[in-house]
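User: Reviewer 2 asked us to show a designed sequence for the structure in our supplementary figure. I'm pasting the structure tokens here. Could you produce the per-position amino acids so we can include them in the response letter?
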């Protein structure tokens, strides 16, 4: 599965399924990617990613920066 980009309360992450594990990279303002510093458990499905990210980040959320959504294109 190719990487999908997510906007998580204003922060960008690229998330990709490799074999049975999720690879999560934080995307910097310069476009460079680095390990995100958190793990998505292998049992989380593609359709559950938004809910998982919300559950993980909602206490740190700056709601003025929106919610959690996939970035298209």
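Assistant: Here is a per-position design you can include in the supplement:
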């Amino acid at each position: 599965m190719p990487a999908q980009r997510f906007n998580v309360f204003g922060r960008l992450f690229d998330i990709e399924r490799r074999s049975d594990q999720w690879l999560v990279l934080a995307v910097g303002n310069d476009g460079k990617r680095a390990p995100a510093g958190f793990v998505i458990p292998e049992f989380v499905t593609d359709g559950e990613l938004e809910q998982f990210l919300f559950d993980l980040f909602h206490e740190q959320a700056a709601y003025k920066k929106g919610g959690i959504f996939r970035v298209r294109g």
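For the response letter, you might also mention the following. The mean pLDDT is 91. The helical segments are 49-57.
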